[in-house]
Amino acid sequence: MRRDRPQTLEVGTPRLHQSGGLGHGHGLASLGTRQGPAQRVCRRGRHVGRLLRSALVKVVALAGGVGAGKFLRGLVRALPPADVTAVVNTGDDLDMHGLRVCPDLDSVTYWLGDAFDRERGWGRRDETFRATEELRRFDAEAAWFGLGDLDLATHLFRTRSLAEGWSLSAVTGRIAARFAIGSTILPMSDERVETRLDVVASGEQLDLHFQDYWVRRGGRDDVKEIRFEGVEAASPAPGVRDAIEEAEMVVVCPSNPVVSIGPILAVKGIREAVAARPVVGISPIVGGRPLAGMADRLMPVVGLEVSAVGAARAYEDLLDAWVIDEADARLAGRVRDEVGVEVVITDTVMRDDDVAEQVARAALAALT
Ligand code: FO1
Predict the structure, then answer these.
(1) Which atom of ligand 1 is nearest the CA belonging to 210?
(2) Which of 129, 213, 215 is the best mutation target for the ligand 1 pocket, counting ligand atoms within 8 Å of the beta carbon and taking the most?
(3) pLDDT tens for each residue of 184-237
(4) CATH of 8-93+228-365, one of 3.40.50.10680, 3.40.50.300, 3.30.70.1250, 3.20.20.70
(5) For a substitution probing ligand 1, which of 88, 122, 264 has the most ligand atoms within 8 Å of its CB?
(6) pLDDT band per the 50, 70, 90 thresholds, residue 63
(7) Which residue among 161, 239, 351, 368 is least enclosed by CB atoms within 10 Å?
(8) Where are any strands of DSSP class E within 3-161?
(9) CA-closest candidate to residue 360, choices 74, 85, 79, 81
(10) Is the per-residue pLDDT at 263 higher than 80?
(11) Residue 64: CB within 6 Å of ligand 1?
């Protein structure tokens, strides 16, 4: 917890748009606050503002799926894409019809590669599902996980490359290159980690893969426990630790704190590396509900309140600043008092890339 009293920054969209680009002009330094220019000193007394005004601003973003994808599109408008490294959850990964599917890696890749389907919330834009429909005719049960025809090419390429001996991080880089992505996308680990849930369904105890819980069974089961199987043996993927150690700041994307960011921080050494950097996060909970996904069902399982305060608590040993939505402005005092971090209030509902950029600038400015 911070010892100095944090300030609440109320950030309005127009002012942020006036602040100019961070990449070269570094206009974030001119961001005003209600209380006048804030002196922002983070947990360990580091003055990040100086760093942000320097030529190189390297940022690591811890990322899950859709919320992270939207945010990252804004981040690469606020910073040169090459200065951004996304470290992505792989706990949701599964083998489907013999193919390795990595939903969060693919989400981040498709969002940054401008190939994402904003309406569906997963998979590629202009997608067709002819192969899955045909598979359903063979075996209706087997086609519960919808693999689009374009998306299938990603999984075929990944699976073949892994079989040839490429590591997951190397294949992820090759897939990112296909989408001409200027940022680095890294899996949290090259080793398998599997998010599994112990649930009770009709009085029966079941041990489910995350995708079985969420997609196959519709997230309706009563969850008793969440585990990241294999995480004790997993090491950070090559480049992850270096990227964090070299980063001016770490941004925790507005992703599920339990099953998206939780697995990343559980890989050995990652939490410690992040704790040594200035950290800002964006709340995935707005008005007491997640904007996407099932955080409202899973946060209580690990004792977290479903609110912008509860989500901040998931990272209370790491955070210097927390960005919350205007709808949660009344919670700013609780975040300051109970979590002990600086609070930024802004519109965080990323309807488009302009809002995402404004959220990214607000997050970066929180540590300047
Ligand atoms: N989500 C669904 O709700 N139904 C699906 O059939 C489905 C297929 C799918 C295929 C590839 C992929 O990368 C993601 C897919 N998702 C699907 C999304 C995914 O299950 C989750 O939303 C993420 O794992 C949570 O981050």
Answers:
(1) 24
(2) 215
(3) 999 999 999 999 999 999 999 999 999 999 999 999 999 999 999 999 999 999
(4) 3.40.50.10680
(5) 122
(6) very high
(7) 351
(8) 8-10, 59-63, 84-88, 94-96, 99-101
(9) 74
(10) yes
(11) yes
What are the extents of the domains in the chain?
A: 8-93+228-365
pLDDT at 292: 87
Residue whose CA is at the smallest distance from ligand 1 atom 22? 122
Task: Determine the Cα–Cα distance for residues 342 and 325; give it in Å rounded to an integer.
Answer: 14
The C-alpha atoms of residue 102 and residue 89 are separated, in whole angstroms, by 9
Handedness of CA 84, 91, 175, 270 (dihedral sign): positive
Instruction: Find the 128 Cα to ligand 1 centroid distance in Å.
Output: 15
Ligand 1 atom closest to Cα of residue 107: 13
CA-based nearest residue to 341, from 23, 3, 55: 3
Closest CA to ligand 1's atom 14: 103
